[in-house]
Amino acid sequence: MILRSGIPSAALAGVLILLTAAGCTSPTPAHREIRIATGSPTGVYYAVGNALAGVIEQDLPGYEARVLVTDASAQNVQLVLGKGADVGFTQADILVDGGTPAPELASLGRVYDDLLHLVVPADSPIRTLEDLKGKRVSVGSRGSGTVVTVGRLLTVAGLATAGAVDRRELNLDDSVQALSDGDIDAFFFSGGLPVAGIKKLSVQTPTRIVDLSKWAGRLRRTYSDVYVVRTIPTTAYDLPAVATVAVPNLLVVPASMPDDLAYNLTRLLMERREVLAAAHPAAERLDPRTAIATLPVPLHPGAARYYRSVKP
């Protein structure tokens, strides 16, 4: 018997057997991994990054997401540039540190603003930035955005000379513990509101946040226009409202990321923001109208395509 294809039935059966066997032994296509560089487990980057990882795994077939605990902004940028991460959270001022941002970087969007906290015990004599002279102060961990911002702040305030401030480079968790134990007099941390570690500290130990707003102008004139003034409201920590220095926060990726992937990551960032906001209130500020303001780095073409598609 000859089938319509012209191949004898016995031969066709053999071919089918071989094809079936080959199909059984073919490896399952590997999932593509997306590594998200965040920060401390008690910081905003980690909370939002972890939620984003869950959204990616749920909504992007063929992709797995992994969250990287890091020292935050500066390290995140280096990881993305060095191909150790695919996505990274960073303060915008890190990207103008030492000149023009690396052309290998692009952004998926402006996420929210980081506010610089100067935290002291409630009964501390420290009332202004100048009062830090001679005090033991955590300026943020090496590799973080906090340590860069604080270094600039101390410079414009004339407190960057040797011995002016007893600097300690501690991450958020260690800073909170050191202040609680009396091992430091104050600590800085830059993050979206509210910062979980600071909120927990304010519940357990009487604390106060120092007003830094008068220094924003000097930071702009000396370094970059990214610095602005924002208010830490009473609702953040149940403490008196205080004004401080703030800087936009961006989600950066390699400029070489495929356009379709950048498009879909941006889409998830915006369309699933309620999931991200449930992980941390800072994500409530995600908005396509402000997300496109990513200077000093350009929007990734795939991200730009998404924003154009939802433009009213």
TrEMBL record:
It comes from the Bacteria. Residues 1-30 form the signal peptide. This is C4-dicarboxylate ABC transporter substrate-binding protein. It comes from Winogradskya consettensis. CDD domains: PBP2_TAXI_TRAP_like_1. The keyword tRNA processing does not apply. PROSITE patterns: PROKAR_LIPOPROTEIN. PANTHER family: SLL1037 PROTEIN (PTHR42941). Keywords: Signal. InterPro entries: TRAP_TAXI.
